[in-house]
Write a structure and sequence with these properties.
The protein has 2 domains: about 170 residues, Lipocalin, CATH 2.40.128; about 45 residues. The protein has a 6-stranded antiparallel beta barrel. A two-stranded antiparallel sheet has the order 1-14. A two-stranded antiparallel sheet has the order 3-12. β5 and β6 form a beta hairpin. The two termini are about 35 Å apart. It is of the alpha+beta class.
């Protein structure tokens, strides 16, 4: 209201107001969810603390009618902690943090983001409170393993001895073998496949100037399909030409 009065009185030229509006930063608020697609597979089987993870945005993020984060923008993350499942108990755990965003025109922001959701087709679960990806348990599979090997042992013992006693002995031996198999086998690893989707939640706002979200003449970066080539652990993305850390 005050600004409108000043304009009517001629104290603020309309041209100056237009320039002020153009110079106003575009803010992507904290808490914004950005759908991402994994470029490289990650798993507790071979992941280590400090390993980098590469993703691309899968859907445009729009603020005030302007596309601020187009599809195909690069996101780099880091595995901050990993734990393999135990041989007797425990589940695989994977902690993933997002570190930087590179737009198709090379503008980059450093930030910290967390995982807000994982691909619904994954058998793993997300502990939102702690931000960790947890593998499924193996308790049911362990029981099935013991049962299957025990049944096979009973069948072989019965055939060999042609008696109930032989079946009992064979079944007991099978149970022992089944338990030994479980003790020597780890549970399922926590893993996210290449091409699977995760939601990144921004922990703080991102600010861009109008000229930094100008994508005119910038070729669109298509989101890679699940069969896209996977970079190795030491692979790197193209260096941005306009890195502006926050």
């Amino acid at each position: 209201m005050k600004t409108a009065i000043l304009i009517l009185l001629g104290l603020i030229p309309l041209a100056s107001l237009t320039a002020m509006a153009q110079d106003a930063p575009v803010i992507v608020p904290a808490g914004t969810r950005v759908p991402l697609q994994l470029i490289n597979r990650i798993s507790t089987k071979n992941a280590h603390e400090g390993d980098q993870v590469y993703l691309t945005s899968a859907y445009p993020i729009v603020v005030d009618g302007h596309i601020v984060i187009p599809p195909g923008s690069y996101v780099k993350g880091t595995i901050t902690q990993t734990k393999r499942p135990g041989r007797v108990a425990g589940k695989g755990e994977l902690y993933l943090r997002f570190d930087s965003l590179t737009l198709p025109n090379g503008v980059t922001r450093d930030f910290h983001g967390r995982v807000g959701a994982i691909d619904g087709s994954s058998s793993d679960t997300l502990d939102k409170k702690e931000g960790k990806i947890v593998s499924e348990g193996s308790k049911g599979k362990d029981a099935a393993t013991v049962g299957e090997i025990g049944a096979a042992g009973a069948s072989i013992g019965g055939i060999a001895a042609r008696s109930a006693a032989g079946a009992a002995v064979g079944g007991g031996a099978g149970v022992v073998v089944g338990l030994a198999t479980i003790l020597l086998t780890r549970g399922p690893d926590a893993a996210l496949e290449r091409g699977s989707t995760v939601d990144m939640v921004l922990d703080r706002e991102l600010s861009f100037r109008a000229d930094e979200i100008n994508f005119a003449g910038v070729p669109a970066r298509p989101v890679p399909p699940p069969t896209a080539p996977q970079p190795g652990p030491s692979a790197s993305l193209p260096l941005p030409h306009n890195h502006v850390p926050e």
